[in-house]
Each structure stands twice: as C-alpha cells, then as structure tokens.
Amino acid sequence: MKSPMTTLCYIERNDSYLMMHRIKKKHDVNAGKWIGVGGHFETGESPEECLLREVKEETGLTLLSWRFRGIVTFSQEGFGTEYMCLYTADEFEGKFHDCEEGIMEWVPKSHLMELNLWEGDKIFLKLLKDEEPFFSLKLSYKEDKLVEVSLNGKELKKN
What pLDDT is attached to residue 56? Predict the structure, then answer.
C-alpha cells in the first residue's frame, strides 16, 4: 500500500520550472496533466529524504538547495486523502535523464497557466509565485472537479 504522504517539487532555472507531462504511466490519476517532480514516501523516510530520492529517480538531478513551501491536503472521491509536502528548488547538479512517468520540459513560469494543470495546482502555483509564507492548502475533488478549497484553515470555495 502506498503512503498517503508525498512530495512535489518545482525545480527552477532561468525563470522556468521543470514540469512533467504525465503521458507514459498506465492507470495514472494525473494522466495528461502537467505537474512538478515527486512521489510517495517510502517507509521511514523524512520529507527531505523523499524529495531528494524522487527528484534523483525521476530526473537524474541531485538537489543542492530547496525550500519547504507548504503542505497540501488532497482528497478525491475514490482515491482517498494525500498529504503533499510542497517544495521549490533552485540549485542542482548531475546529468539529466528521461523519466518513465512522463516527458520533462522547462516551462517559463509565465506560461504555466496555459498547461493542462489540476485546478488546485493553479492555486498553489500562484501562492508560490506570490512568495506566500509557509501555507496549508486543502483541495477536495469530486472526479476531476475542484469542489472545496481552504487556505490556512479558512474556506475559500465550496460547491
């Protein structure tokens, strides 16, 4: 059984984020979407250990500098609840390699909202852009539709 704890990282370079277009993995809840780099915790891992391992596995890169930006609670009918530790990183080394889950591409931050993103991802990407201090964001989905949003315990949207 997969851990309900995950990490997600937006690696920055030249005012762009490294984004993964999820088009390779079978039975993928993120199929067709663009997301950052990350994945599920393994037993005994800290958030930072998971972050570093997932980035290395998916990109070949070793992060040298990163910031823990917030925690995002996702709930989706039929998929349960996931708690995601959200990071940005701005220094890395290593040789980049292809990922078996999707195609990686550097996307200018100014073009992010043109991508096929989850509606809730647009919210936390804006929080990152606005340099929001550490935040807690709750996103509830019914199928692919965002039906509830709370930021730092305050409800912003409910359908």
Answer: 96
How far is the C-alpha of 85 from the C-alpha of 72, rounded, in Å? Answer: 7
Residue closest to 71 by CA, chosen among 141, 137, 5: 137
Rounded distance, CA 107 to CA 28, Å? 22
- The pair of structure tokens assigned to 107 is 């996307």
What is the dihedral sign for C-alpha 70, 51, 96, 121?
Answer: negative
The pLDDT, as a whole number, for residue 1 is: 61
For the chain, list the domains and their CATH numbers: 5-154 (3.90.79.10)
Q: What are phi and psi of 40, to 5 degrees?
A: -80, 145
Looking only at the bridges linking them, the beta strands covering 145-151 and 135-142 are antiparallel
| Least confident piece of the model among 4-8, 21-25, 31-35, 41-45 | 21-25
> What is the spatial distance between Cα 153 and Cα 13, in angstroms, rounded to a whole number?
32
Residue 150 one-letter amino acid = S
Give 139: exposed, middle or buried? Use CB within 10 Å, 0-12, 13-18, 19+: buried
Burial 23-61 (b: 16+ CB within 10 A, else e): eeeeeeebeebbbbbbbbbeeebebeebbbbbbbebbeb
